[in-house]
Design brief:
Blueprint lengths: L1 H32 L8 H18 L11 H21 L3 H4 L2 H9 L7 H10 L2 H14 L3 H9 L1 H23 L12 H22 L19 H32 L5 H8 L10 H6 L1
Helix pairs in contact: 1-2, 2-3, 3-9, 3-11, 7-9, 7-10, 8-9, 10-11
């Protein structure tokens, strides 16, 4: 009963926070559209909102009530937060226009100078591809160690930390792929294909272990009700198979899109810059309109 109460309480605040983020994003998008910025188009809005919806499904929908009963439901949460929602959110956010105007002034007021040297160095360090890869892989492995896994199930606080870490490292992992630019990273763009391939290895090892292990790795599910007619071992095998399939398909799609982009004769460094810094060409020509936004 207490667990159900905690879930309902957490779901309410998670839903409220996501709604506020969506409304702020839509409000900002409507204002930016007045500047005729070509990169701030409708599909970006759809991508961002869909990413928020997937986060809501993972953290505040009825699925959240099943994660203590089924490893498969727990795995779906992880995949939504780490593999599916982050790239959709990053695709939907042309970062620089969203931190201009009142938002930029507010952040500067509270002591967060976005363009200061230390902040830029911190941003470059956090988004270095090797660090992003290690962070995502480490988070995946650590939270599936039985003792850490049980800690997340027993404590609502630690469960929230677990989910937040999956989302945060998911965003960091996808950042070099979504906004890959030679001027930001010394890594060549083509290295992102190897980056994606190597990222499948920890998932493949973990999913293979869950599928082919002849015992239940997390004994807590032995006493759980058999949802959908699955035993604890069958549930574990289903979770492992789901992880392997989802990660493989998503990373293959991302690699195919990235390879097509690299081979496209229309691709240029300037187009990549405009994708995430469109104000350089549109806003600077009319700074009064940007200030009005």
């Amino acid at each position: 009963m207490l667990h159900t109460h905690h879930i309902a309480f957490g779901s309410f605040w998670t839903s409220a926070a996501l709604i506020v983020v969506a409304l702020l994003y839509l409000r900002r998008w409507v204002r930016i559209r007045g500047l005729n910025l070509e990169s701030v188009v409708g599909w970006r809005v759809a991508s961002f909102v869909l990413g928020l919806l997937l986060i809501w499904i993972a953290m505040a929908s009825p699925l959240a009530a099943l994660d203590h009963d089924m490893l498969t439901a727990h795995m779906v949460q992880h995949l939504l937060l780490m593999t599916l929602a982050p790239p959709l959110i990053l695709l939907g956010v042309p970062m620089r226009p969203l931190v201009h105007g009142p938002l930029q002034r507010f952040l500067q007021t509270i002591g967060c100078p976005l363009r200061s040297g230390p902040m830029q160095k911190l941003g470059r360090a956090l988004t270095y591809p090797a660090l992003c890869w290690v962070g995502a892989a480490g988070t995946l492995v650590v939270w599936h160690i039985p003792s850490m896994f049980m800690l997340g199930l027993r404590s609502q606080t630690w469960h929230g930390i677990e989910q937040a870490s999956f989302l945060a490292t998911g965003l960091l992992f996808w950042w070099p792929v979504i906004q890959s630019r030679p001027i930001v990273s010394k890594w060549p763009e083509s290295s992102m294909l190897l980056y994606l391939f190597l990222a499948t290895l920890p998932c493949d090892i973990l999913s293979a272990f869950l599928v082919f292990c002849d015992r239940v790795v997390y004994p807590v599910f032995l006493s759980s009700p058999q949802s959908f007619g699955l035993s604890a071992l069958e549930d574990q095998q289903c979770a492992g198979a789901l992880m392997w399939t989802c990660v493989t398909v998503v990373y293959l799609i991302a690699a195919a899109i990235f390879a097509a982009r690299l081979l496209s004769p229309l691709r240029s460094e300037e187009q990549s810059i405009l994708q995430f810094e469109p104000e350089r060409s549109a806003v600077r020509t009319d700074p009064q309109r940007m200030e009005a936004v």
